[in-house]
Amino acid sequence: MEWLFLLLPIAALSGWLSARSHYKKRFSAQQNCFDPDYFKGLNYLLNEQPDKAIDVFIRLLEVNSDTVETHLALANLFRRRGEIERAIRIHQNLIARPTLKPAQRDQALIELGLDYMSAGVLDRAEQLFLELLNSPSPPTDAYKHLLGLYQQQKQWQKAIDMAKKLQSQDPTKIGAEIAQLYCELAEQAIKVDASRALSFLKQANQFDANCVRSALLEATVHIQSDHFSKALKSLAKIEQQDPHYIPEALPLLKTCYQALNKLPTFQIWLKGLLARHPLMVSAHLMLAQVIEIESGTEKAQAYLQTQLQQHPSLEGLHHLLSMGTLSNQVLLPLVHDMTDSLLQHGRRYVCQHCGFSGKTMHWHCPGCQHWGTIRPTELHFSSFEPISEH
Ligand SMILES: [Zn+2]
After folding, report:
1. 357 has a pLDDT exceeding 90
2. Following DSSP, what letter does each residue of 138-178 receive, concatenated?
3. Could you tell me the distance, in angstroms and rounded to a whole number, from the CA of residue 375 to the centre of ligand 1?
4. pLDDT at 384 over 70
5. 302 CA distance to ligand 1 middle (Å)
6. CB neighbourhood size of 288 (10 A)
7. Cα 76 to ligand 1 centre (Å)
8. What local confidence, expressed as pLDDT, does residue 326 receive?
9. Whole-angstrom Cα distance, residue 266 to residue 254?
10. Ligand 1 centroid vs 348 CA: distance in angstroms?
11. 365 CA to centre of ligand 1 in angstroms
């Protein structure tokens, strides 16, 4: 309930502002006085009838070019609070005014569309935005919101059409987004019609040559049709596009090399990859899998042990343990080194005031200079930062 009092100054201020400009224009000599409605609203508020109070205050805010912004801000506030009916009423009230400038009218219409979206009346929102597109100079936001709406409804083709219009309207980089939308279409087609899926992926590539997702999907389509060499060709693009996504490609690569009876080639490729990205844990694990298939469990275990000593990782340890029983002589020093190194990464002491964290106790926080705000915390996995290459 307290928040309503926050509205009071806004209402009073804009009431005063509109009154001031009103009087300035027409009766500059006349004395300023409060509108009796203001007291009526106040009375409602004090009697805990906020609904009536708000209606009065909204009416008080005379709609003119000075107060449109206030109306929009107020309506936005209501929408964010989930009081969508109220937001709709304010926007409809604004739109009904013939004095509104075209740009303000457009904005109010867009906001009304957003109200409908929040209320889940998507067809009305769509209709409203589409009507805006027919105006002589359609606002860019109408395209953007339609794009958002079609994405929300998973109407990918419509979303693509809208995104393309947006691309010609507003030359900001939207190509990567369009590529993703084509990937969505390809994913839908993949099980029904492989060649249709491939043609969508080709379009994705035209809009974003670095679209990793389309390379992965292309490989999936080829694997489905037993075209393993083609799949390898698609997957080979990913390292150039963005090496962070290689872990997603590794299982597909393994499938292809295995089907082609070329695991030794895969092994060589993995070693090359690891020379370029030595911290890629998933590549180490994949290499261990290939070594296991090619040369047996012992060799794979030995490889993982050496790797774990250099780059401790939980996944690595887990993988090593699942490969078979290890002697305590091997296991214990390994686990000790791992936990030791993990603990060193953990942030043991955290300032409750500024969030400063460190490995040693400070009674005077080096971050915010407060005394006694740093507390020891128990180490959880969440306090370990992801191991990444920089
Ligand atoms: Zn601090």
Report:
1. no
2. --HHHHHHHHHHHHHTT-HHHHHHHHHHHHHHS-SS-HHHH
3. 10
4. no
5. 45
6. 23
7. 36
8. 74
9. 7
10. 14
11. 5
Alpha carbon of 343 to ligand 1 centroid (Å): 22
Domain ranges in the chain are: 173-261, 285-345, 347-390
CATH class of the domain whose range is 173-261: mainly alpha
pLDDT of residue 336: 84
Q: What is the DSSP letter of 2?
A: T
Q: Supply 151's token pair.
A: 């994405």
Structure tokens at 347: 């942030």
Q: Which pLDDT belongs to residue 389?
A: 42
CA distance between the termini of the chain: 50
Q: From ligand 1's centre to the CA of 249, what distance in Å?
A: 43
345 C-alpha to ligand 1 centroid (Å): 20
Q: Are 147 and 169 in contact (CB under 8 A)?
A: no
On whether the CB atoms of residues 348 and 377 are closer than 8 A, the answer is yes
Residue pLDDT, tens place only, 139-173:
888 999 999 999 999 999 999 999 998 887 766 67
The residues near 386 (Cβ < 8 Å, ≥ 6 apart) are none
How many angstroms is it from 389 CA to the middle of ligand 1?
28
Q: 134 by DSSP, 3-state: which?
A: coil
* Contacts (Cβ under 8 Å, ≥6 apart) of 38: 11, 12, 15, 60
- Residues sharing a CB contact under 8 Å with residue 282, sequence separation 6 or more, in sequence order: 246, 247, 250, 315
Distance 376 CA to ligand 1 centre (A): 13
pTM: 0.69
